[in-house]
Structures are given as structure tokens and as C-alpha cells.
Specification:
This is Response regulator. With 131 residues, the protein is α/β, with parallel strands linked by helices. It contains five helices and five strands. It starts with 10 loop residues before the first strand and ends with a helix.
């Protein structure tokens, strides 16, 4: 495996109840030199976030137990992680979903299925000051 020149070692968290989406994101991000932490729902993510201090969080919207909007709101209410960019992931691309994401503090909205290029471009855009 070759690591690309823009390797930063930043930690990226991917929260999604789909193992396919988590695995795809993990492959794309790892190949680009990022450390990846996976969570299969909001509760799992909240249990892991303190240990890993991600520079950026990708969060699915439709998840069991704690949905993406609730998860994002809880991350943003945390004194420790309020400045961490949270990018919503969803197969729905409606104006309402984007607005609701913005209301809970999401930095951006990525539609699934995402491409490697769109995922990495979103990471670079939202972590430019951390690299």
C-alpha cells in the first residue's frame, strides 16, 4: 500500500450503520494516509470520540438508536469537540435534510454513494487548518 504525499496522520471518524459504507470510507481514507475510527451508530461514536479526538467526523443521518442529527448535536454541544467539523452522510439529498443538518451544527453534507474524490476533497476542505 502506498501512502499519498498529502498524508497527514489526522484521525477521521466515520459513523454509519452500513458496514459497506464504513468499509469504503475506511479504505479511501486509509489509502490517503488518515487514521480512521469506525462507529456503527451514535452511541458507539460517543463512546469512542474521547479516546480518539478525531479532526473530522462523517456521520450518517439514518441510524438506529441515535440518529445523525442527534449525534451531531451532542458532539457540537461538547466543550471539547464543539469545533470539530461534522459532515453529514445521507442517501437523501433534500433541502430539508441539509437545513436540519446545518441547524444541529453540521459543517457540510455529503450524499451517498460518495466517490473517493468527493470524500477526500471534503476532508481536505474541512481540515486544512489542522494539517
Amino acid at each position: 500500500m502506498t501512502i499519498s504525499p498529502q498524508s497527514t496522520g489526522l484521525t477521521i471518524m466515520v459513523i454509519d450503520d452500513s458496514s459497506t459504507i464504513r468499509r469504503s470510507a475506511e479504505i479511501f481514507l486509509t489509502q490517503a494516509g488518515y487514521h480512521v475510527v469506525l462507529a456503527d451508530d451514535g452511541f458507539d461514536a460517543l463512546a469512542k470520540i474521547n479516546d480518539h479526538h478525531p479532526a473530522l467526523v462523517f456521520c450518517d443521518i439514518l441510524m438506529p438508536r441515535l440518529d445523525g442529527y442527534q449525534t451531531c448535536a451532542l458532539i457540537k454541544k461538547s466543550a471539547r469537540f464543539h469545533a470539530t467539523p461534522v459532515l453529514m452522510l445521507s442517501s437523501k439529498d433534500g433541502l430539508f435534510d441539509r437545513a436540519r443538518g446545518a441547524m444541529v451544527g453540521a459543517s457540510a453534507y455529503l450524499t451517498k454513494p460518495f466517490s473517493k474524490d468527493s470524500l477526500l476533497a471534503a476532508v481536505r476542505e474541512h481540515t486544512a487548518d489542522k494539517a
